[in-house]
Design brief:
Elements: H1 2-17, H2 31-58, H3 61-68, H4 86-111, H5 116-137, H6 141-165, H7 167-172, H8 174-193, H9 203-221
Helix pairs in contact: 1-2, 2-4, 3-5, 5-6, 6-8
Length: 222
């Protein structure tokens, strides 16, 4: 994502420093060329931002796959009945990351990719990417919940800020906000279903212990 952001800065510089976009009275380029160059710079920035956001999200996939595989720790802990099927998460997050990329591109082009609002978004995005390694990799369920609270807090500032700069950019983040609220509720419920003495971070051990207790009880009853 850092590489994508640097690339976007170059696109931004190209877009605003191009002589074809100035108001020189005697420009050697025809009007059609000016329009073509101006329009071409918009999808280029959007493409870089969108791909960068999606590829950043993909970095957490190995950790998620390892945790959710058959026999993995996530399969052995208590989950709420309203937990979505695993197949739902990948397409949902791919769509949401794509929308984030478009929103960031629009705001970056309007306010600058090094502006305070853009930097706040990059912080939020980095926090978002940290959730999967913390939850599925480190199995620190409570810490992951705190990350979700941090995401909601920063997003509550970002959406109005984006909206003020570009209303479409703000609107593109609303589905993400709704999903984040759901994910936070799910994370909180999982914490309540799997309490541990050491900060909800021993889910694997607790699940294994629960299994042993159930087997021991079944053996005693037989």
């Amino acid at each position: 994502m850092v590489v994508a952001c640097v690339a976007l800065r170059h696109v931004e510089a190209f877009s605003y420093s191009s002589p074809f976009q100035t108001n020189h009275r005697f420009s050697s380029a025809p009007r059609s060329t000016k329009t073509a160059i101006h329009l071409f710079s918009v999808p280029k920035a959007t493409l870089i931002s969108t791909v960068g956001h999606v590829m950043g999200g993909v970095t957490g996939t190995p950790t998620v796959v390892q945790g959710t595989q058959k026999g993995g720790w996530y399969r052995r802990i208590g989950l709420p009945t309203w937990t979505p099927p695993d197949r739902v998460f990948a397409p949902v997050w791919t769509l949401l990351y794509s929308m984030m990329g478009v929103a960031f591109s629009r705001v970056g082009r309007a306010a600058g990719f090094g502006s305070p609002v853009a930097l706040l978004w990059l912080f939020h995005y980095a926090l978002n990417l940290s959730w999967a390694p913390v939850f599925f990799g480190r199995q620190r369920l409570r810490l992951a919940l705190w990350i979700n609270w941090g995401l909601l807090a920063t997003l509550s500032v970002i959406i109005p800020w984006f909206w003020k700069i570009d209303c479409l950019a703000g609107a593109l983040l609303i589905p993400y906000a709704a999903w984040l609220l759901f994910a936070t509720a799910l994370n909180a419920k999982i914490c309540r279903l799997n309490p541990t003495v050491n900060g909800y971070n021993e889910a694997k051990f607790q699940a294994g212990l629960l299994n042993l207790q159930k087997k021991a009880a079944a053996y005693a009853d037989s």
